């Protein structure tokens, strides 16, 4: 990173305009000069936690290629700052930017455990795995303060309801006690994201995430405790981490992961602009090559929104990535399989244990 303007500790390097807003903002040179002369800070780069109070917490997932039917998110926005994150666009619906606002304005659903319990007590609800972090990481830094993920896990355990977790933070080990209890009933499946084995790469593309070492250790601890772990090698970014597939697969398999999956990066909505601005500052010598290779995987564009194709890509580079992934599965995940979670206990526990009498 040889650009003096690079904002360290964040993924996005600026706020892009919100497509739903008639207004835009920019840091003008005259304003920055005024701040300098007055000894003021133009941007303190601090994270804000903003409470919000939605009426529901469990969302029906309508996209047919996501691999889940229901998700819930205790937080909107994510301080991890992953530069490629598809969830950035959702921040625009709240009136914020998909850029720095996504990483610095974290919306906190403080009633999440109450809303979840109301959903599970509903007479019309049929047990089906609900995935925490379908949008933003449930173990992002905000969780240390608010503990909403832990409280929601307690609700899932109370009602013996299956739950999935997607995270890239070793903070999940804080809740190992609850996870073990859920696992004893076949109620939990964990997905750990491991994007690279290089700390330098991790710091650039996922600046405020857990180190690779600690993520691998988390897979090992969870697996040793009998908790099934799927490793998410995602996203694969041509020219950045695409050469690591075999080494990544071996590393997560060695730690006990029972399955793995991957997605090919796609830069939908505002993310294309955010990623392009970032890579020209973070990796100026590689920027054109990486952007061209991503485009080659999506028919000449940085994004392809077609279901079933958008996460897989097309073309020679995409085919090479798929072939490498298939080889990695044959080498390191033969005869391994992620289990189906248990939906059979919920009906008994929906109303406590009254049905037993």
Automatic annotation (TrEMBL):
Keywords: Iron, Iron-sulfur, Metal-binding. SUPFAM superfamilies: Radical SAM enzymes. It holds the Pfam family Radical_SAM. Residues 64-301 form the Radical SAM core domain. InterPro entries: Elp3/MiaA/NifB-like_rSAM, MJ0683-like, rSAM, rSAM_sf. CDD domains: Radical_SAM. NCBIfam families: rSAM_PA0069. PANTHER family: SLR0285 PROTEIN. This is DNA repair photolyase. It comes from Maribacter sedimenticola. The lineage of its organism: Bacteria, Pseudomonadati, Bacteroidota, Flavobacteriia, Flavobacteriales.
């Amino acid at each position: 990173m040889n650009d003096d303007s690079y904002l360290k500790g964040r993924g996005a390097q600026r706020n892009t305009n919100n497509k739903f807003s008639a207004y835009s903002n920019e840091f003008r040179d005259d304003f920055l000069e005024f701040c300098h002369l007055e000894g003021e800070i133009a941007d303190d780069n601090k994270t804000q936690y903003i409470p919000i109070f939605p009426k529901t917490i469990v969302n029906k997932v309508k996209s047919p290629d996501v691999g889940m039917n229901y998700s819930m998110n205790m937080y909107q926005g994510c301080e991890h700052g992953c530069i490629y994150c598809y969830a950035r666009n959702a921040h625009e619906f709240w009136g914020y930017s998909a850029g720095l606002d996504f990483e610095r304005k974290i919306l906190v659903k403080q009633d999440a455990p109450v809303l979840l319990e109301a959903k599970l007590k509903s007479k019309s609800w049929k047990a089906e795995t609900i995935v925490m972090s379908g949008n933003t990481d449930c173990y992002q830094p905000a969780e240390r303060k608010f503990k909403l993920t832990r409280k929601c896990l307690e609700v899932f355990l109370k009602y013996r309801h299956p739950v999935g977790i997607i995270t890239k933070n070793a903070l999940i080990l804080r809740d190992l006690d609850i996870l073990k209890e859920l696992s004893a009933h076949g109620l939990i499946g964990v997905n750990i994201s491991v994007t690279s084995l290089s700390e330098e790469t991790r710091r650039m593309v996922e600046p405020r995430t857990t180190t690779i070492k600690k993520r691998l250790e988390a897979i090992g601890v969870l697996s040793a405790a009998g908790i099934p772990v799927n490793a998410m090698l995602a996203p694969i970014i041509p020219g950045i981490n695409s050469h690591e597939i075999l080494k990544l697969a071996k590393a997560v398999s060695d730690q006990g992961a029972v399955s793995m999956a991957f997605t090919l990066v796609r830069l939908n909505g505002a993310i294309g602009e955010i990623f392009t601005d970032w890579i020209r500052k973070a990796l100026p010598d590689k920027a054109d090559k990486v952007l061209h290779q991503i485009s080659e995987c999506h028919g000449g564009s940085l994004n392809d929104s077609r279901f079933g194709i958008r996460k897989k890509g097309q073309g020679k580079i995409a085919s090479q990535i798929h072939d490498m992934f298939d080889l990695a599965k044959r080498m390191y995940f033969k005869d391994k399989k992620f289990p189906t979670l248990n939906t059979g206990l919920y009906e008994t526990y929906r109303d406590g244990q009254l049905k037993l009498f």
